[in-house]
Design brief:
heterotrimer; A alpha/beta (267); B mainly alpha (250); C mainly alpha (269); A: 267 residues; alpha/beta; 6-stranded mixed beta sheet; 4-stranded antiparallel beta sheet; 10 strands; globular; disordered N terminus; C: 269 residues; mainly alpha; MetI-like fold; 12 helices; 77% helix; 0% strand
Chain lengths: 267, 250, 269
């Protein structure tokens, strides 16, 4: 009954956009070594939307940090686009954080072009690119606003635009909608899928929310509590584009239930 | 760096400073007239601690500090509580209070002298004046820090005013009050010192000012060390008391 | 019953003070020695305006240089002490303890070392303002949201870029607070030291005229100092209003805690 889907098996030519082999992580706690992650294996084909779900403290954020090159793992390999990643590489991986982390002293468009500023890109070019990204996320015309003039959902859109501005093949998202109220979350989820379909990125998305996971994902990876292990890989076969009505179907409910079972009964 | 090694490093730094203090004047790298070697200063310290006139001066200063404190604290607390409890009163005076702190209050010292002459009352009055504003502000902040929710819960269970006072206000305010006491004492001591150094015939502040004028550097530095040590001792004592009452604070 | 607004009340109180200042001595309620009438004070201030102007010039000069020291060193060292975890844990408790000591007791030492001219005032006021600015900056540096650094790192920022494009802009509110504090305290420090042992400056005028029991001139000097304080305060507030966008920069939700921390013992003087 379980699809322990080795997803690459279903495509012949897909080189995995993100590949994790035997990753484990141990950190030094106050009373000795604490295992945080254990034997993580993942293969995400290009263009897939993968969601990682797990209880609090299971290490999913740490895993994302490692995928982004912001943290080093104790053992195991991480390959993005076929090459190992050991430091941040925004041309390969764009990151969207839970807190929008927009710089309050910059306007929206300046925030989006910030990565290009770091790369010393010429002014006209980076401004054009940033404006294009803002348009993509539905904020055309809002470029001159400062973050304190934007709502929570709008700030996250700017954050997404910033993550996409260098056109990386992979987008990592760490519970980006967690700080938003439920209605905004649903809208943003829908928007995100639209952006994803337009840009064909590979997305690795972390969330607490089972509903969000099933709604957004092609595949859901269920993680256990610490030390984090992959308990299950669940393919979500619901047709795309996803609609809100799907949330009411039995199939949707069954998938949610399965994820919850896994988390609840994990050893 | 762990706790023990931090202390060791700090002691090491202190030792290095003390060593320099001893060595630089002795080696002539620093004018020994202006900065006597540490050993001379310590000898002077022992010497002044034994002198009767120094004891008398310390007594006078201590008396001024205590009396000014005893005046300023209850008065300031009452005003501060009033400012916190009565929104109208508070709204009027709070903005003024903040401004008061950026004004050099020492300029009013002359006023106090013109009014009281130079003597015990003048110094006490000035020190109390210096201190009262911070007491008002701290008391006000302390009252406001008591969370409205806690009061609401107590009232919803039918607590009387006295019970609310005893069981919600006081435990809630205690750490802040202790901190306020500590900081107010710093202000108070500063006020007394300024008054004594400015125009006084007695008190330790006067003594060290005199030593300075007469270039008796060893005694001056000894006096400075003595006063600094006293100030820090009081500060740390209250701080440890604060810490014990604050275990529940985030 | 319509109570007047607090602001109106404050203004009324201000006016009342001015009226009483004039009336009380003139009506003989208090001796003129203690408080000369306001008009008389203003009159001598006008008469001796050249003297007061010269003294003010000296005082302002000392404040400016001392501020440079106090704020410059305070912000720089405060950033390092606050920002580098190792140094912070080592030194911050030490500085916090030292802060209980009334710095005025060092003034005789400085006078002995630097004489009674401007140098000793500048050094004293510089030290006077240094500690609070340093402590406030050290505290403020820590309020910079770590997420900003994480986000920048994820975008591939190098260390120099982190410092210039994230840390510095995010520190601006802290720096402004430090400047405000440092300026107020150096004014206090200079005035106190000028009053104690000096041959020049507005503080000196206060002392000199007090010893000759020339109350109007004492109060004239007091008015000049108050004006200096007020002008500085207004100037700083003007700058703060202009930089409002930056005021929210970098901070995690601060709230009342941050406001309370601010008062240093040096404001006692």
């Amino acid at each position: 009954m379980q699809h322990v889907a080795n997803v690459t098996g279903t495509r012949t030519d897909a080189r995995a956009a993100v590949e994790v082999r035997g990753l484990s992580h141990v950190y030094a706690g106050r009373d000795g070594a604490v295992p945080a992650l254990e034997a993580i294996d993942m293969k995400v084909p290009a263009g897939r939307f993968v969601v990682i779900v797990g209880p609090s403290g299971c290490g999913k954020t740490s895993l994302l940090m490692m995928l982004a090159g912001l943290r080093a793992q104790s053992s195991g390999a991480i390959l993005v686009d076929g090459r190992p990643i050991d430091r941040p590489d925004p041309s390969r991986v764009g990151v969207v954080f839970q807190e929008a982390s927009l710089y309050p002293w910059l306007t929206a468009v300046e925030n989006v072009e910030f990565p290009l500023v770091l790369k010393h890109a010429p002014r006209a070019e980076r401004r054009a690119r940033a404006e294009a990204m803002l348009k993509l996320v539905g904020l055309d015309g809002f470029g001159a606003r400062h973050p304190h003039e934007l709502s929570g959902g709008m700030k996250q859109r700017v954050s997404i635009a910033r993550g996409l501005v260098q056109d990386p093949p992979v987008l990592l998202m760490d519970e980006p909608f967690a700080a938003l109220d439920e209605q905004t979350r649903m809208t943003m989820g829908h928007e995100l899928l639209r952006i994803w379909e337009q840009t064909s990125k590979t997305v690795v998305f972390i969330t607490h929310s089972l509903t969000e996971a099933v709604y957004l994902a092609d595949e859901v990876l269920v993680m256990s509590a610490r030390p984090g292990r992959i308990l299950d890989r669940i393919t979500v076969d619901l047709p795309r584009p996803r609609t809100y009505q799907m949330m009411a179907t039995e199939e949707f409910g069954a998938l949610r239930e399965r994820i919850w079972q896994q988390i609840r009964t994990a050893p | 760096m762990r706790g023990a090694s931090l202390i060791i490093v700090r002691l090491g730094l202190l030792a290095a400073v003390l060593l320099l203090w001893e060595a630089l004047p002795r080696l002539g790298l620093v004018n020994a007239m202006l900065l006597p070697p540490l050993s001379d200063v310590l000898a002077a310290l022992v010497h002044i601690l034994g002198r009767g006139d120094v004891h008398a001066s310390l007594g006078v200063t201590a008396a001024e500090v205590v009396v000014a404190f005893v005046i300023a604290v209850p008065l300031g607390a009452a005003l501060g509580i009033l400012a916190a409890e009565n929104a109208y009163f508070g709204d009027i005076f709070k903005p003024m209070l903040f401004y008061v702190f950026s004004v050099p209050k020492s300029i009013f010292l002359s006023m106090f002298i013109l009014a009281f002459g130079i003597g015990f009352p003048q110094k006490v009055a000035y020190a109390a004046f210096s201190t009262i504003f911070i007491v008002i502000m701290s008391a006000s902040a302390a009252v406001e820090s008591v969370k409205a929710e806690h009061l609401l819960v107590a009232r919803s269970y039918g607590a009387t005013q006295a019970q609310i006072l005893r069981r919600v206000y006081i435990p809630s305010m205690l750490p802040i009050l202790l901190e306020a006491l500590r900081i107010s004492m710093i202000f108070n001591f500063t006020g007394v010192m300024i008054a004594e150094m400015y125009a006084s015939r007695v008190g330790i502040g006067r003594l060290i000012a005199d030593w300075g004028e007469n270039f008796e550097m060893a005694k001056l530095l000894a006096g400075v060390i003595l006063l600094a040590a006293a100030a820090m001792a009081f500060n740390e004592a209250v701080r440890s008391l604060e810490a014990r009452c604050s275990t529940w604070r985030t | 019953m319509n109570w007047p607004t607090p602001r109106t009340v404050r203004r009324l109180i201000g006016v009342m003070i001015l009226v009483l200042w004039e009336a009380i001595p003139r009506l003989g309620i208090l001796p003129e020695l203690f408080i000369p009438p306001l008009t008389k004070t203003l009159h001598v201030l006008w008469l001796d305006r050249a003297i007061y102007a010269a003294a003010l010039f000296v005082t302002v000069y000392e404040v400016a240089v001392a501020m440079l020291i106090a704020c410059g060193a305070g912000i720089l060292i405060g950033s390092v002490v606050g920002g580098v975890a190792g140094i912070r844990r080592l030194m911050l408790p030490v500085f916090s303890s030292l802060y209980a000591v009334p710095i005025v007791i060092l003034y005789p030492v400085f006078t002995a070392w630097f004489g009674i001219g401007s140098e000793s005032k500048i050094v004293f006021a510089g030290v006077y303002g240094f500690f609070p600015v340093m402590l406030s900056t050290a505290a403020g540096i820590r309020t910079i949201d770590e997420q900003y650094l994480l986000a920048a790192r994820s975008m591939g920022a190098s260390l120099p870029q982190l410092i210039v494009r994230v840390i510095i802009p995010a520190s601006i509110p802290t720096v402004l607070a430090g400047l405000r504090l440092g300026g107020a305290l150096t004014i206090i420090g200079v005035v106190v030291s000028e009053m104690l042992t000096s041959a020049n400056g507005i503080g000196y005028l206060v002392t000199k005229n007090r010893t000759t029991l020339d109350s109007p001139r004492v109060f004239a000097a007091i008015i000049v100092i108050l004006t200096l304080s007020v002008v500085y305060d207004i100037a700083v507030r003007f700058i703060e209003r202009r930089t409002l966008v930056w005021q929210t920069a970098g901070r995690r939700a601060g709230g009342p805690e941050t406001a309370r921390v601010a008062l240093p013992a040096q404001a006692a003087a």
